[in-house]
Amino acid sequence: MFSHANGFPAPTYRKLFALLDADFRVRAVDRFGHDTRYPVSDGWKGLAQQLLDFLQHDCGSEPAVLVGHSLGGYLSLMAAAARPDLVRQVILLDSPVVAGWRARLLWLSKCTGLSERFSPAGATRRRRTQWPDVAAVEAHFASKPLFRQWDPEILRDYSAFGTVDDAQGRTLAFQRDIEYRIYKTLPHRLGQFARKPFPVPVTFIGGHDSREIRMAGLRATRRITQGRIVWTQGSHLFPFEHPQETARLIRQART
Q1: Is residue 155 situated within a structural domain?
Q2: CATH of the domain at 218
Q3: pTM tops 0.70
């Protein structure tokens, strides 16, 4: 069961899914936050419930391997903590757990309205949402530093499946306001998972150049994973930059 990062619908990962297909029966929620039954709220309880309901209804009777990138990793941890009977293991792709003084700072930033300084929320509000066609979408993102290291096939998939038709041509499939609200409601209590042994095995795969890891620290993540931490080349978005290596590490992490 794969859970996507904020702002990137599941079809963006099509190449990664294809690389995993021989070893996993991949299932994924298309877009978290867009189903009115599971609204975005502080701490993401509704989004975690969306994942749990999907697990129960679409993933069969066997406990699932939960693989999550960024947002998806945190939701996977929350789901596994709530219903460990549904989960075989969790594999986090650059989802470092914020705890201790950093968690208190995150809570304070949310209370004071300063959370945009500690997340991509501010940039999200300014993000372009309209293009005349898919080719224009791809050209736009290819020119951005954040996307320059992406695998070309994944960038094409994001351009095609991360946008939908509208009256002006193409618009983002993942609504900008929802992406913004997800960033503004980051959980600040995930450190609780480090206080006692986690009920299922957890592995963390991190990008060497991840700014998010430097900001969050890894103390709580080391406790939750019991040291099962693996490093790979790339940034916070390494699954888009190096899908073959990401697939290899996911297979290697499977227990």
Answers
A1: no
A2: 3.40.50.1820
A3: yes
Q: What is the pLDDT of residue 194?
A: 96
* Torsion-angle region of 109 (φ positive above 0: left; ψ -120 to 50: alpha; else: beta): alpha
Domain count, the chain: 1
Structural domain boundaries, residue 9? 2-111+186-253
Find, among 48, 43, 99, 56, the residue nearest to 78 by Cα. 48
Separation of alpha carbons 158 and 14, rounded Å = 9
pLDDT band at 221 (very low <50, low <70, confident <90, very high): very high
Residue 174 lies in a domain: no
Cα separation, 150 vs 153, in Å, equals 8
How high is the pLDDT of residue 59?
A: 74
